[in-house]
Design a protein that fits this description.
It comes from Neobacillus mesonae. This is 1,3-beta-galactosyl-N-acetylhexosamine phosphorylase. GO terms for molecular function: 1,4-alpha-oligoglucan phosphorylase activity. The protein is α/β, with parallel strands linked by helices. It folds into 3 domains: about 290 residues, TIM Barrel, CATH 3.20.20.80; about 220 residues, Rossmann fold (3-Layer(aba) Sandwich); about 55 residues, Immunoglobulin-like, CATH 2.60.40. Helix 6 runs parallel beside helix 9, helix 7 crosses helix 9 and helix 10 packs across helix 11. The chain is globular and about 75 Å long.
Length: about 725
């Protein structure tokens, strides 16, 4: 492979000049960055590279924050559930929270801004029936109903930034002061952020790119009394709440938010919850404010002749890169952490910026780079899953973060990343402005739609959870598949119908979640719009508990179209005779062993017309069904794997009535894929495994030839026809 340079960002640190020069040469880096906990010395800043400097807007300024503790950021929290034994109940509302991070807000009247709720009835307790003991951090209810449960929703000041706290614990920063986050919605803080940045730019003339990490409000991350993570939601808006925000919201939107609109029964409006109209209003309110204030900072950066980059993490709340306000910020670039293909697409597809950058794993921290561990394994897995997505739409740059001195101690890792950076540049220079071949247009249907493009079923970014991997696999499979992907909401369909160019709709998730849809499926306009679209020739794939909402004799509201429903015990008296699988099927042709992940229990076929493809343990896990001129497919779960990617591809082509086109630009081996670029007469054949693979590769005209690929190989070949 030809040695090239550029499009790579290297982390560095003080007293590491010669090693930095060496790795710049080997990895072809043209930019150098600091990281959380590191600084660049003057000699490194003089190297032939762009200099990225991490910039914290609302943390790391304790000399200011300590003088204005009344302008600390705030959160609404909910106490534990407390059972009343008598008509008096005393609630220790801070129990279970980390007092080094959080302090109750007694500056503002609790009777106005807090809420005590009888969770047995759901009724708000009259403020005259409870009082606050500030010395003991307790609420005393004086007219409780015995054996009812009660909670307190209360405001706190956040006095320790959660990312710094995490790094403090992970990297043993025992001697570092706690960063105090302040709220730029407040007058002193708002003025300070602009003045400080103006002076900082003058004091850092060697900085070329200001890497905002990020702007104002951290995703919701609250620690427990043991200093461990208690609640973490990468999408959470909890830390954007304040008395000032509540008052401004009422003025702008014309109604007042309740504390319950934020604490949400203790679920805090996670992205799995079907969002309420009030919470959607609040998100829009925050996004508008963040865009307006962030633009002021970006303008200051541009006036100094530097670039403004946003890190899609830490304090990213309110920026929503697929939201309607993001464009107004005027950023030059966005950088985000890469956990696999879905996160690559989340970053690469972001509109309204000049370039995007992916920060690859592993991060150069001691939790990975320690004696006896091999970081090449994680790096290889991360690259192979990301590479599929890069071949669909590459980020413009890649990079790493952390302590370069740690990574340097692992020569095999250094050599592997040298190979990765060269391979990335080869891909980018070949295909960046080229449209790849797509055989289908696929729409992911959920409550969030385009606002959360490539962001469904995540909790803390790309971390594994038992409840999500069976669905997150859908996104991961699609991220590098030869299909166009769009994200639509239930409200979009009710308002505008299904987009005309969509071949297949996918609805995947557990019942009651924003991803399956919950109460949305009670809307007859939604149900009839989707039902008629399928009947007129559309393809629909349901995964897990699609369209689930118990209503009028169905659990799956599209059960008649899907040909399956879920037994809840209500219809046990009705016999289920349809249990015989078909002998073979287009969808399962390449599958040697099924993996439905956590799967789904008690799914049964409604009639003999349902094509049962996999039936075991007395239930259907994979099936298809015709509905008018359309087709549907049911899958019990789809964790990411090479075989499941193939299963999903076949299911989509079958649902779309396009089986005859399946072998266009195709590899017979499930561990291999073909990405075609007819406009430049090239195709990439890739091996997604770490073993040698043999495959038949089909071109755009159905001609096949045998190819043997080395482990992890990417091979470029010319297209000899129009395709």
């Amino acid at each position: 492979m030809k040695k090239t340079r550029g499009r790579v960002t290297l982390p560095s640190e003080q007293n590491f000049l010669n090693e930095t020069k060496e790795l710049m040469e080997r990895w072809g880096a043209d930019a150098i960055r600091d990281s959380d906990g590191t600084k660049l010395d003057d000699e490194i800043k003089q190297l032939d590279a762009k200099i990225y400097t991490t910039y914290f807007v609302a943390r790391g300024h304790n000399e200011f924050a300590e003088k204005h503790m009344e302008e600390c950021q705030q959160l609404y929290l909910m106490s534990q559930f407390n059972t009343a034994l008598t008509d008096t109940l005393e609630i220790e509302f801070m129990k279970g929270y980390f007092e080094e991070q959080l302090r109750p807000d007694y500056l503002h009247d609790p009777k106005k801004y807090w809420e005590v709720i009888d969770r047995t009835t759901g009724k708000v307790v009259d403020p005259s029936d409870w009082k606050v003991n500030e010395e003991a951090d307790r609420v005393v209810i004086t007219k409780a109903v015995p054996w009812h449960e009660y909670t307190v929703s209360f405001l706190v000041f956040a006095v320790w930034d959660p990312t710094q706290m995490y790094n403090h614990i992970t990297n043993n920063w025992g001697d570092k002061p706690h960063d105090i986050p302040f709220d730029v919605r407040q007058p002193h803080s708002n003025e300070y952020m602009k003045n400080y940045l103006t002076q900082w730019l003058k004091d850092n003339p060697d900085t070329d790119v200001v890497r905002f990490t990020t702007f104002f409000y951290h995703f919701t991350l609250v620690f427990n009394n043991l200093g461990k993570e208690k609640f973490v939601d990468w999408f959470g808006y909890g830390a954007s709440v304040s008395v000032a925000a509540l008052d401004a919201f009422e003025k702008e939107k014309g109604y007042r938010l309740r504390p319950e609109d934020i604490v949400d029964q203790g679920y805090y409006n996670t992205s799995f919850r079907v969002p309420s109209p009030a919470f959607l209003d609040y998100m829009d309110f925050v996004q508008k404010f963040v865009a307006e204030e962030a633009k002021k900072l970006v303008d200051i950066v541009h006036e100094s002749g530097k670039e403004a980059m946003m890190f899609l993490g830490d304090n990213w709340i309110g920026t929503e890169p697929y939201g309607k306000h993001f464009e107004k910020i005027g950023l030059d670039a966005v950088v985000g952490s890469v956990g696999g293909g879905a996160t690559i697409r989340m970053i690469a597809d972001i509109p309204h910026v000049r370039y995007t950058e992916g920060r690859f794993l592993p991060y150069f921290f001691p939790d990975t780079f320690y004696e006896g561990n091999n970081p090449v394994i994680e790096a290889n897995e991360n690259w192979l899953t990301a590479r599929r997505a890069i071949l669909r739409n590459p980020v413009d740059r890649i990079g790493y973060g952390g302590y370069l001195s740690l990574a340097y101690k692992f020569p095999d890792f250094v050599s592997y990343i040298e190979k990765v950076t060269d391979e990335f540049r080869e891909i980018y220079e070949t295909i960046k402005v080229v449209k790849p071949y797509s055989g289908l247009k696929v729409a992911i249907l959920n409550a969030w739609g385009g606002l959360r493009t490539w962001q469904t079923h995540m909790v803390a970014h790309a971390l594994w959870y038992k409840q999500i991997y069976s669905y997150l696999g859908v996104l991961e499979a699609l991220s590098g598949a030869s299909v166009d992907v769009t994200f639509i909401s239930f409200d979009d369909v009710v308002r505008d119908g299904v987009p005309e160019d969509v071949d297949v709709i996918i609805n995947a998730g557990d019942a009651g979640t924003a991803f399956s849809g919950g109460v949305h499926w009670k809307n007859e306009k939604l149900v009839t719009a989707i039902r008629s679209w399928i009947h007129n020739g559309g393809g629909f794939i349901g995964i897990g508990e699609p369209t689930a909402y118990q209503h009028e004799g169905h659990y799956f509201q599209l059960a008649t179209a899907l040909g399956v429903d879920k037994e809840l015990g209500f219809s046990l008296s009705t016999d289920k005779y349809f249990v015989t699988p078909v002998k073979e099927h287009f969808i399962s042709a390449d599958i040697s062993e099924y993996d439905f992940g956590e799967g789904m229990k008690n799914i049964y076929a409604l009639t003999e017309e349902t094509e049962i493809i996999e039936y075991s343990d007395g239930e259907v896990h994979l099936s298809s069904h015709s509905f008018g001129n359309g087709r549907t497919v049911y899958i019990a779960g789809l964790p990411y794997s090479e075989e499941n990617t193939r299963l999903l591809m076949r299911a989509m082509y079958y649902a779309a009535h396009k089986e005859e086109e399946f072998l266009k630009w195709h590899a017979s081996n499930v561990y291999c894929e073909v990405h075609a670029y007819p406009a430049i007469q090239k195709m990439a054949i890739i091996n997604n495994s770490m073993q040698e693979q043999k495959t038949i590769v089909y071109d755009g005209e159905g001609n096949g030839k045998e190819v043997i690929l080395a482990p992890s190989e990417i091979r470029w070949e010319a297209i000899l026809h129009e395709g």
